[in-house]
Amino acid sequence: MTQSSPRRLKLGFILHGVGRTWDDWRHPDRDVRASTSFPFYLHQARLAERGKFDFLFVADSLSINEKSSPHYLNRFEPITILSALAGATTHIGLVGTLTVSYSEPFNVARQFASLDHISNGRAGWNVVTSWLGDTAANFSKDSHPEHHQRYRIASEYIDVVQGLWDSWEDDALVGDKAGGVFVNREKLHRLDHQGEFFQVRGPLNIGRSAQGQPVIFQAGASESGRDFAARRAEVVFCGPQTLAEAQDYYRDLKDRARKFGREADQPLILPGVAPVIGLTEEEAEQRYRELSSLGSLDSGLGFLARAFNDHDFTHYDLDAPFPDVEALGRNSNQSASLRILELVRRDNLTLRQIAERLATPRGDFVGTPGQVADTLQNWFESEGADGFVLFETLPGQLELFVEHVVPLLQDRGLFHRDYEYSTFRENLGLPYPINRYTAQRVA
Amino acid sequence: MTQSSPRRLKLGFILHGVGRTWDDWRHPDRDVRASTSFPFYLHQARLAERGKFDFLFVADSLSINEKSSPHYLNRFEPITILSALAGATTHIGLVGTLTVSYSEPFNVARQFASLDHISNGRAGWNVVTSWLGDTAANFSKDSHPEHHQRYRIASEYIDVVQGLWDSWEDDALVGDKAGGVFVNREKLHRLDHQGEFFQVRGPLNIGRSAQGQPVIFQAGASESGRDFAARRAEVVFCGPQTLAEAQDYYRDLKDRARKFGREADQPLILPGVAPVIGLTEEEAEQRYRELSSLGSLDSGLGFLARAFNDHDFTHYDLDAPFPDVEALGRNSNQSASLRILELVRRDNLTLRQIAERLATPRGDFVGTPGQVADTLQNWFESEGADGFVLFETLPGQLELFVEHVVPLLQDRGLFHRDYEYSTFRENLGLPYPINRYTAQRVA
């Protein structure tokens, strides 16, 4: 970003089918098959692109059981649905979650590079390590690596993937028909990675794409996760419940990044937000009641089970103090379980109270388009966010956001009026990753 | 296929970018970046769909080195490009190669199931085991499993994938909003596979698609490969050079399939063909010369290297008898190397002669649209083929085939005038795979 250009917020949209929590599918306007409906995804994607969103985001998980929420039970695989959308959109970024725990770096490097070519430079990879206790059983493994180990694996994994993405220098493909030279072999490189967890020779069998390398997303929340994000991520996705939480996270992560020698504006930090918009305050409140009427106690208990290693909470007295399950969260979703425990302690909640709160969190974004735009602006201008990743809480909310909130953000100079560049990386204001071998040659 | 419907040939088209052999990229009309050009793939795909082709086919390989052909060096990954094309086509099948050697069955089951949903029932998986000697080095492995072992792994792998595809019975997704029942849990099944090579619990986190399961393709050529294809494949792709070779293969494979208890019309056997079409015989001959002028001795030597475990053939006397390299082919591409050795012995060829023949094989399909249609009809009617998979030899050949050969096949009642069904499986005349758990319940 040059000094003269104003700081603009970035917007992503989370694509999901039947909803984002346990009971969203029960809304009268939901198609219960939306999670595997390409027409639905296409409609949402095009709507987001009409609203000039910087990117679409497809989350993921790898195992289900009898306690899983409907939005996990049945869903598109991210790489495939993003590739399908790549051919049907022109400017919007395409970000997908893919775990390093149960995949091969060569395959992952290749699929994202291929998506990057198909989309002409619009791919992003949200790097995650798997934490759901029973995922290992789908991959011929007995158990996950322990929490700390997972980030060491992830770090080496990204080294390999980014190394493979540099296999081809930008001008390696020559295509000299008369001379019979297809590729300049001095600009096509083996990686010859020999690490602790991976040994990968390369080169990758696909050239560099328009943006050089796909953009790296990460959602570090635990201590080791934050360090990882601060070192490696270009964009960080997070889930604060309040502005104060957002500011704490923002400050902490930028501090860590600076210690690792990164530029002040990196990584971009984008909290997830779940607005409930109405054209009037009354309408917004009515919509929030509509939303919370869908949430059930079961959903809250399901959410708890997910954070605490699939522990069954249905056997406890709902109105007694929250049970002692701290140890269960430690090697599962560490950050989510810690946050829940903090909330329980701070507000002295019973099991029923925390379950209800988790089922339908209200958040700061219930209101008119103007109120929602104000809150977004406030978070953005008070060091809480570099932008936002939007969840659609109710059918029709994305359209309301695109029609009514986006123009306000544009009028206030906070958001671009149109895509300024053709690649995702450029639209985010991220630097072009100069090929390591080209850099060596120049040095 | 009911008794009253006429037997119709099936047509597939191999999508590739810069060509199918070493020197195709040097043709003046080739875009040297076609292999990663989505507009080019989209154009080819739509042209094939206009010609009512049953399917598109994307081949694959997983490692490159300094000897690799341009069409291997730089290419789309199959799942991503097929997903992108899924959103831009409506009826044509989408078949991709994916190796069982360096992937996880859960991921593969999921990606093909997802592609099957995106395309509304048009996915096919070409199951291969990897044989290029240096692929293991891209996947943190020292070496491939040996040839025979690879098919035992592949067989168990398909068991797992097809088992996961049955996780959801057809009517498992209930979506009863009033009753709060999203899924009928009695119709959502764990696989609990505990095998020699894989342990996979399931269920898969995506429901059954419109065609039940993606179609299984295979290209068994060696003894164990043929047995594997005869047992497991629904469609077999093969590469005979002559009608006699095609008939031998056809008879052998159908015999094997019968012994394994399969129906007489299964699997479908589709030889690859590489027509060179001209509107007159002279034009066809001129085009063939145009094609063979691109082929170089280096290409033939490269082809040999690939079949014989990356052996370097450039150090031999080109005009001496073919060197003794039989052992090198055995654990590499066994079937290709054996065929080359047979050809060398039968025609008593020098290294130069076999290399030239491999660089530009002429085949039986050089001629006018009528001549090409005659030959296709002859192969189809004399038990050499159930249909064909078409390679485009020169730019413009697919269009000639669609405009001039397809109508002849249609006029003769050999090929459908339009897609009769919405799913790939139905268009191929293959049975719907009844869910195993539903079948148990009914029994």
TrEMBL record, chains A, B:
SUPFAM superfamilies: Bacterial luciferase-like
The keyword Phosphoprotein is annotated on this UniProt entry: no
InterPro entries reported for this sequence: Diverse_substr_monoxygenases (IPR051260), Luciferase-like_dom (IPR011251), Luciferase-like_sf (IPR036661), NTA_MOA (IPR016215)
Lineage of the species this protein comes from: Bacteria, Pseudomonadati, Pseudomonadota, Alphaproteobacteria, Acetobacterales
Keyword flag Flavoprotein: yes
Family: Belongs to the NtaA/SnaA/DszA monooxygenase family.
Domain Luciferase-like: 34-385
NCBIfam families according to UniProt: FMN_nitrolo (TIGR03860)
Protein name in the entry: Monooxygenase
Record's keyword terms, sorted: Flavoprotein, FMN, Monooxygenase, Oxidoreductase
UniProt-recorded Gene Ontology molecular function terms: monooxygenase activity; oxidoreductase activity, acting on paired donors, with incorporation or reduction of molecular oxygen
Native species: Neoasaia chiangmaiensis
Pfam families: Bac_luciferase (PF00296)
